[in-house]
Amino acid sequence: MSRRGPDTVSLDVPSLCCDLKSAVMQLQGSSPIQGTEELLCAAKQLVAVLEQPFDRMARLAKAPVGHAVLRTAINIGLFEQFYAGINHAEGLAARCGVEKTLLVRLMNVLVSEGVFEQYGPQQYKSTLSSQHMTLPGFRAVVRGLAETADIMPHLPDYLASIQYRNPSENKPGLFGFAKRSELSMFEWLEQNPEKLQVFQEFQSAKEEMLDTSFESLLRELIESTPPVKKLSSDEESFQTDTVLLCDVGGGRGTALRSVSTSIPKLSTFGRTITQDLRSVVESIEPCPEWEAMPYDFFEPQPVKGAYIYMLRDVLHNWSDTACLSILSNIIEAMGPKSQLLILDAVLPETCAPQFMTYIDIQMMQFGGMERTESHWRHLLFQVGLEVESIQVRNTTGLESMIRVKKI
Ligand SMILES: C[S@@+](CC[C@H](N)C(=O)[O-])C[C@H]1O[C@@H](n2cnc3c(N)ncnc32)[C@H](O)[C@@H]1O
What is the distance between the alpha carbons of residues 198 and 42, in angstroms, rounded to a whole number? Predict the structure, then answer.
């Protein structure tokens, strides 16, 4: 199915209905996630044609209302009370400590957004979304997104203040503009431990929510490194200084945690290291299977000749200039057998999925951006790297695996 942007869609409702029908048929044959995405894509295209211009603009302008109501619902403990067995406005209002009229108005929005269903006046039913709101990981994602939502209203004034240049400054950038701070977001987080925790929990939870196809690819790559291949067949084990994987800007080690559980006795084959800012590394619980190392990726890379260097969800936070410097430090450290994996979005050249276009704009808070394949190739070429392969994970393309080698 070709992807069409709402404004370029011809008013061909019958053919869009055919797309929808064929997506329903495919659903039976494909994996649930893949099939659902196709169907959702077809349904969105149909809605895009049917939705009237005023409704579309109103929906865009009113989006902050839904989010603000959701956050209020979290703050008053609405989801906990609902799942404690209270499903009517009277009881929910009493338990949440809010006036009933206010509760009803909040619920009206949540019902209209499909977070709850309504089965009678002031009586509500759960949905998959409301159930998810009780999961700690899901709530961490909502909390993390809320932080960004507070920054975005400042975008128009910020862009005007920089004369509508494409933002490429990490400091102060949109984030600094919104917070009235001279610091970059990562520096600001280091000085605000509570917010740093929200950000790190968001990163870890986001990973848990996503599908794990790259986890298996990463595992295969580690298993194909000489130390693991050789030792696996010899069934020997010994301590070695070899570094199998160096996860640069690896946060609290979410990726290493999952590979170390999927490859038994990983540490007997070599070291796996997550590197991040000191404040982040200090918040990590020590783990015998992998190491956490404080490191600023704008400084020379201390880990030399690792089999795999990985940058996951890192480069989209930074401008091209900053990326070139991060990449140069890795290249300097790479040995003849080293490879670099970049796990990041690869934006389609046309009609990018809405989720990716929004994330791209969100990256302006750091002076970063999402990149197309041609942009990635050009960027990497400038530091003597070339793309070996690109694997796109799913139709949102939000996390692709770009395997890179020295030219
Ligand atoms: C978007 S997070 C991605 C984390 C991790 N790679 C993942 O996929 O979960 C970006 C990470 O880059 C780290 N970071 C930012 N500036 C850094 C720097 N100068 N040196 C090292 N890490 C940095 C942040 O602390 C954060 O953990």
Answer: 35
Cis amide linkage into residue 172, ω under 30° from 0 = yes
Domain that holds residue 102: 54-132
**Which one is catalytic: 67, 154, 316, 375?**
316
Q: What is the pLDDT of residues 130-140, one digit of tens each?
A: 998 888 888 88
Annotated catalytic residue 67: no
Question: Are 124 and 118 spatial neighbours (Cβ–Cβ below 8 Å)?
Answer: yes
Same domain, 35 and 166: no
For residue 247, report the distance from its CA to the centre of ligand 1, in Å: 10
Query: For residue 31, what pLDDT band results from cuts at 50, 70 and 90?
Result: low
For 99-144, how does the pLDDT look when each residue is reduced to its tens digit (9 = 90+)?
Answer: 999 999 999 999 999 999 999 999 999 999 999 888 888 888 888 8
Specify whether 19 is located in the same domain as 127: no
Pocket test for ligand 1, best of 204, 277, 284 (most atoms within 8 A of CB): 277
| Ligand 1 neighbourhood includes 314 CB (under 6 angstroms) | yes
Pair 342, 292 in one domain: yes
Nearest CA to 377 among 388, 392, 393?
Answer: 388
